[in-house]
Amino acid sequence: MTERMLESLDVRQLRYFAVVAEELNLRRAAERLFMAQPPLSRHMKRLEEFLGVALFVRHSRGLTLTTEGERVLEIVRPVLELETATRERLHALRVAGARAPVIGLTTAFEQGVFAALESRLFAAHGPGLRLERATSPRLVREVRRGRVDAAFVALPLDTHGLHVVPLSYAEPLLAVLPEGWPEAAQGRHRLRDLSGKPLFWFRREGHPAFFDHTKRVFAHAGFAPMLKEEPTEHDVLLARIAAGEGMGLFPASFSAIRRTGVVFAALAEGNLLGIRLGLIARTDFGALAESLVRLAEDALTCSINLK
User: Fold this and answer.
1) Which of 128, 150, 188, 191 could cross-link with 281 by S-S, CB 3.0 to 4.6 Å?
2) What is the pLDDT of residue 240?
């Protein structure tokens, strides 16, 4: 059999053959395939002529596979299984592409950062787009569960098993101090100058990757604060800082929030403690991820230029 002949092989005939081989009865096979018996019989004869072997022994009670027919069935089954799996995956991709995606936005940045990005997301995906705002670790869990298609998160982060694209947008951390503290009158600080002060901070189990990263920076800078459990809501945290209970470390975008009683101050180690925006998605959503990365880079660049 020449290579050109193999290229002309009709996969439909192989599928028809597999059904006939399972039923060993042309009438039942034709019913399964929703076709008439004579055309199915002609397809089997053409396949036998094409392969140059007899696939069935025909008798009054039905059909029996020949030795060659058994060999052909063994060869074509993996091909047909792969075809079925391919069709199912392409169908799932088409369905996912037909609906508006669910996109996550991390609350690690002040949400005004995403204003231009949100406008472009709705322009690209229509009013059916759903935005999910949550912490970065929670968005990772939602993407892994398939409840969110892709998410913009703050790095560093444990993203094992996901498609991850770091973006160019990043922010340093600022010290947020009670206005009544003497240090609030100073412009720029080193972490070690604030050592021993109460610091609102999160538990490691909430964000292990970032906790370990900041712990290393703290140790290198000689910063040993008195840790206090951090409230989950930013407005509650700022209120407690304003009340003089302790300080906080916030990404720079939160300095856009005007809060009486607190002062945002630059840190010498702010960039070392900084967070970078990244996009995460399941590995089978690579095409969506690529389009979102391009859209985000354009939107965030425009936002920065307008400031």
Assistant:
1) 150
2) 94
- Over residues 238-295, the pLDDT tens digits come to 999 999 999 999 999 999 988 899 999 999 998 999 999 999 998 877 788 888 998 8
**Tokens 């690529």, residue located:** 290
Say yes or no to pLDDT of 1 above 80.
no
Distance, CA of 177 to CA of 83 (rounded, Å): 62
In degrees and rounded to multiples of 5, residue 64 shows phi and psi of -135, 135
Interaxial angle between packed helices 11-23 and 67-98, expressed in degrees from 0 to 180 and rounded to the nearest 10: 120
Helical segments of the chain, H only = 3-7, 11-23, 26-32, 37-51, 67-98, 115-125, 136-145, 208-221, 234-242, 286-306
